[in-house]
Specification:
CATH topology: Porin
Structural class: mainly beta
Helix content: under 10%
Radius of gyration: 18 Å
CATH superfamily: monomeric porin ompg
Largest sheet: 14 strands, antiparallel, barrel
Number of helices: 2
Shape: globular
Length: about 290
């Protein structure tokens, strides 16, 4: 699965920002997690303070194979401060196709024990005029370096929504990096909201040059009650011309019929090509700080 360097909002902010911890992921396979639990932050020097600014502009925002903006533009700006194992984030985000502007704040503790890394966080998402996404999100993630090439990951997310059914998610998965920079991943996610669902899938990323890679993913979301089950996929190309800029162009599709689309309360389940620009840099470096 190809991902943009900084990443996405999670489950509302946990699967939809664990995205929110992360700016928008290049692919939403397996289930978005725009947001830190499934994509732990890079390790920093123990006593070093870092302040990272990130901006994301996208022609759409997909989560679990469906548009979250009714095929409208998505934008996000984020400041991430890290000192040792403590991380704080503050972001301005858009929601819906109007769009409404909201905010996401997160505080996390990420201790590391040799080959094991943990990430415990609490976040609040506030979107005036788009109450369905307002929530408290509690998340716990774990990452284990099994070998130099294989990394195992697991996570637990609980979304406490203000205006709809609360949601719980449990994820297990792993990444494997082959010689030559090719990487592959597989993930299994159980979610409980208005009904139970199980999503399983994976993806692959293949470097073409030092700055260009191609990749894609395929997943199936099994609904045990309520909405229609469906498969979804993406395929695209990622270009990283500098260490602070990434451009991703990706095709998204799914197997939902018009009637099946309606069961997910979606206004459109059309296939789309999505373009995303991500800019990210260390503010301290820009200011000349250590």
């Amino acid at each position: 699965m190809t991902r943009i360097t900084t990443r996405h909002l999670g489950f509302a902010a946990g699967l939809a920002t664990l995205a929110a911890a992360s700016p928008v992921a290049a692919t939403d396979l397996p289930p978005a997690p725009e947001e830190a639990l499934y994509d732990p932050q890079p390790t920093v020097e123990p006593d070093r303070f870092t302040l990272t600014a990130t901006g994301v502009l996208a022609t759409d925002r997909f989560e679990r194979g469906l548009t979250r903006t009714e095929h409208g533009f998505y934008a996000e700006t984020r400041l991430t401060a890290t000192s040792g194992m403590v991380r704080g984030e503050l972001a301005a985000i858009t929601a819906g196709n109007d769009p409404d502007v909201g905010f996401n704040a997160r505080i996390a503790v990420a201790p590391r024990f040799e080959a094991v890394a943990l990430d415990l966080s609490v976040a609040r998402t506030h979107v005036p005029g788009y109450e369905r996404d307002e929530a408290w999100t509690f998340a716990l993630g774990a990452e284990v370096a099994v070998t130099d090439a294989l990394t195992a990951r697991s996570g637990l997310v609980f979304d406490l929504f203000d205006a709809r059914q609360d949601r719980t998610g449990v994820t297990v998965g792993g990444d494997y990096r082959f010689d030559g920079g090719v990487s592959a991943n597989a993930t299994l996610t159980y979610e409980r909201e208005t009904g139970d669902s199980l999503t399983y899938g994976g993806g692959v990323s293949v470097p073409v040059t030092d700055t260009v890679s191609v990749g894609g993913g395929l997943a199936y979301r099994q609904q045990f009650s309520g909405p229609q089950s469906y498969a979804y996929w993406d395929a695209g190309i990622t270009w990283t011309p500098t260490d602070w800029a990434t451009v991703d162009v990706r095709y998204h599709g799914n197997t939902l019929s018009d009637d099946g689309c309606a069961t997910h309360a979606a206004s459109s389940c059309d296939e789309r090509v999505l373009a995303t620009l991500t800019l990210s840099g260390d503010v301290m470096d820009v200011l000349g700080g250590e």
